[in-house]
C-alpha cells in the first residue's frame, strides 16, 4: 500500500526584521549604529489601541477617594426650622437640606474604583506602537556614554548636546542609579527604567 502523504506543515513565521538606528555620543557627534528588534520598533502603529492603552493607564492612576456628605450625613438638627404655613417664606423641613449653606451635597462624588484592565498582549502591542511612532517621527534619540555621567551639570550639558529640548523622557537601564541621580533634578526631564516602560 502506498504510504499516506505527510500532513501539510504550517508556514513558518518569518523572523522579525531588525531596525538600525544611529547612536550619538554625549558630545552630540555620531557614535555608530544600534540594532533594535523589529517587533517593537517596526510594528504597525495602531492608533486606536494606543489611545485605549493611554486611557487605561490614566484611569488606573486615579485614587477615587473623593467623598461628599448627603443631607443624611452632615451634622445638624432634623427639626422643622419653622412652621409650614403663615410665614410668607418657602416651606422647608430641615436645616440640612442642600439649599442651605452647610447642608448636604446632591449627587456629589463618593469613593469608587476607576481601575480598568488591559490584556498583556494588547499592552505589548500598544507599547510597540508607541515606540515605532516615536522612532518614525524622529522623537527618539539613542545616546551612548550617559552611564559615565554622575554630575547634574555635566548631564544637562550632555542632553543639550544631543538635541534634547522641552519635556523629555529619559529611559535608562535597570540599576542605572548614577544616571538617575544626575538627571532627576533637571527641569523637564522624566526618568523611567526600561522595565517600567509603558505606552503612555
List keywords for this structure.
200 residues; alpha/beta; 5 helices; 14% strand
Mind explaining what this structure looks like?
The chain is an alpha/beta fold and 200 residues long. The protein contains 5 helices and 5 strands. The protein has a 3-stranded mixed beta sheet. The radius of gyration is 30 Å and the shape is elongated. The termini are far apart.
- Average residue-wise pLDDT: 90
Sketch the major β-sheet: 3 strands, mixed
Strand order of the largest sheet: 2-1-3
Percentage of residues in strands: 5-15%
Shape: elongated
Number of helices: 5
The helix content, as a percent range, equals 25-40%
Number of strands: 5
Q: Gap between N and C termini, in Å?
A: 63 Å
Q: What is the radius of gyration computed over CA atoms, rounded to a whole number of angstroms?
A: 30 Å
Q: What structural class is derived from the secondary structure elements? A: alpha/beta
Helix-strand sequence: EEHHHEHEHE
Low-confidence runs of at least 5 consecutive residues: 11-15
Q: Care to give the gist of this entry?
A:
The chain is an alpha/beta fold and 200 residues long. Helices cover 26% and strands 14% of the residues. The termini are far apart.
List the helices and strands and how they pair.
Blueprint: E1 18-25, E2 30-37, H1 38-41, H2 47-60, H3 120-136, E3 142-144, H4 152-161, E4 168-172, H5 177-183, E5 189-193
